[in-house]
């Protein structure tokens, strides 16, 4: 199996690229955003908690996110060529939990790929997306910048974690969707 972690700040295009890559490589796409939207849409306890954090422009706590992800992987393991994790891990604790869980099922993270883009470009993308997405956290520039600050503090250190394992790849996230897909495909096909 191939298990890829797709990194990038909110608005970097992870969701768009994940939809393409899952089909191209027969991967199960697990998006923490999709998991949260499912739970929020069904007014589950987890969904209500996730909504509270999002409205405040904060990331959901590690334990809540990890438990949802593990449950989803267990439900879908063996149904594809691997997993494409979008939005997880976001912290060192989550990365360690993911490694521990995958090890328990005789799997590993194969690679982590970061979609890199300038903050100002991403802020503009999210504000534009916020006009149609209905997401409160995409409609307020201050909340967007707070999410980027949290990303820089909590998620960026994961790059070093995966670099030490020789599993980190950076890809330019600016360009057309097909151009970015081609860049990502080159990395995946080199694994």
Describe what you observe in this structure.
- The chain has 191 residues and is α/β, with parallel strands linked by helices.
- Helix content is 58%, strand content 14%.
- It has helices spanning 14-25, 32-41, 45-55, 62-76, 92-104, 119-133, 141-155, 157-163, 177-189, and strands at 2-7, 28-31, 82-86, 111-116, 168-172.
- It has a 5-stranded parallel beta sheet, with helices on both faces.
- Helix 1 (14-25) packs across helix 9 and helix 2 (32-41) crosses helix 3.
List keywords for this structure.
191 residues; 9 helices; 58% helix; alpha/beta; 5-stranded parallel β-sheet; single chain; 14% strand
The low-confidence runs, each spanning 5 or more residues with pLDDT under 50, are none
Side-by-side strand order of the widest sheet: 2-3-1-4-5
Q: What's the total helix number?
A: 9
Q: Shape from CA axes?
A: globular
Residue share in β-strands: 5-15%
Structural class: alpha/beta
Mean pLDDT level: 90
Biggest sheet layout: 5 strands, parallel
Helical content class = 55-70%
Order of helices and strands: EHEHHHEHEHHHEH
> What is the number of beta strands?
5
Rounded to an integer in angstroms, the radius of gyration calculated over CA atoms is 16 Å
- The rounded distance between the terminal residues' Cα atoms is 12 Å
In short:
With 191 residues, the chain is α/β, with parallel strands linked by helices.
Q: How are the elements arranged and paired?
A:
Blueprint: E1 2-7, H1 14-25, E2 28-31, H2 32-41, H3 45-55, H4 62-76, E3 82-86, H5 92-104, E4 111-116, H6 119-133, H7 141-155, H8 157-163, E5 168-172, H9 177-189
